[in-house]
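Bumping with the actual sequence this time:
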Amino acid sequence: MLEASHPLKTTRMTLRPYEMGDVEALHDMFGREDVCRYLPWAPMDLDQARAKVEQRVRQTHVEVDGDALLFAAVEDATGRMVGEFMLRLMSVKSRQGMIGWSIHPDVQGRGLATEGAREMLRLGFEEMGLHRIVADCDPRNVASLRVMEHLGMRREAQFLENELLKGEWIGEIVCALLEAEWRAGR
């Protein structure tokens, strides 16, 4: 079991467990159409954001397949929550994980997604002892693909029209990194 009981530091951010005081910041991000375009939910109203934060505050440890750690990303320079990062345990037996991220459009293009996702890889490989970590995205989400490339993740699969999302058939690109590749690139 791994517990996220303390914040993680990156060069420009603090990744910390969610707090109930994050409702408005989460709503500011996930209430936007441009942020939710590639996510499985529509833009949230304030009540939905509150319910999401209530869920997130409990996601502070991983123990069994499917458990996830969720972190609010706070920019050190401003003290503002600018995104979230996730590390999910996909298989205890096979030591597999998945990372994900969302960044507020106001701060996109500055490398914060890559910085936070790199910390999720470190956490997964160095603290959880994972063997392989994947990330996936809609092929139209060029920014997320760029993050995966910057992380040194390898494209392993591209699926065409494999999911019906918001009334539209979408594809999926899956990228991965092995623990040995992580260690070799450090």
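The tokens above came from a reply further down the thread. The radius of gyration is 16 Å.
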